[in-house]
């Protein structure tokens, strides 16, 4: 076991001062991902800055219909909050579909966004992996990749982002707020995760030493009729092999507003903007939903053992949008 320092912080300025003073410092949220990776030698921080006592543990319902969610809110608190369930039900469902009750009691919003991929080569330090050890190669491309990416990947890395919560946040245009020693900043979730390209080890647009302070969700009336559907290899306590966050508003048989994001298909939550574009102003029926899925998935580049995800995602789009359209018509 490598030695590392541990410091509990109680205010944001103290946290960013510590994070800025040591390039090897990392925030400790619930520790449900970071500590596992430290045990396996994948993460080797020199200092853990325990953020759980920071005053970032509130969910504020904004008067305009949006929400502000503090970075240390636990996954359990997020899923149980009445305004989350009322305004963004897909977000509550997404969080509840992840991990277990005990883990959700510990895991934080900031940590969930920054959890690392579950690619088996990444967590096995005896194997090469461009994300863990830049330039060492990507054995997943020619090896075990049945749950790897079909969209937006590169020959340098085909890993998927494991967060369920992030998929729903992506559908609803979340913005990530952070703080560094230079002051506050924010970045839309759509730009938060960097393209894979040749640098899969560079995962987010957060500046060095940044503390995530919270997430803002803008008002989205369509989100009140939203759903998260997750497909996994066993009924609970498993990561997605494909998932969807969807919201739909139909007026007089025509799609007035729609949100779609996919999970477990890319290195980031995948906002399905091509599908959304193809649906707006058109009929709300199964043919249109299938055509929208095809428009999005035409960019898919499956590997030899994960082509099933294209069919899976197409079926998910049609099934979930059909359910939402039928409920909207009642
Ligand atoms: C068995 C198991 C099953 C799981 N299943 C699922 C699942 O189905 N779906 C799913 O989405 N997740 C799942 N998870 C993952 C779980 O949701 C994450 O481990 C958890 O959300 C991470 O939150 P944390 O607070 O514990 O993060 P930590 O482990 O404390 O930290 C994770 C990363 O975030 C950084 N970090 C934490 N907080 C901040 C902050 N405020 N600012 C900057 N950086 C920060 C840390 O430095 C670290 O790099 C599972 C985990 C386990 C162990
Ligand atoms: S897919 Fe990415 S994380 Fe997995 S082995 Fe390849 S480079 Fe590493």
Automatic annotation (TrEMBL):
Entry keyword set: Oxidoreductase
Keyword Ribonucleoprotein: no
GO MF terms, alphabetically ordered: FAD binding; oxidoreductase activity
Highest rank taxon of the organism: Bacteria
The FAD-binding PCMH-type domain, residue ranges: 1-222
Annotated SUPFAM superfamilies: CO dehydrogenase flavoprotein C-terminal domain-like, FAD-binding/transporter-associated domain-like
Protein name: Oxidoreductase
Organism: Streptomyces angustmyceticus
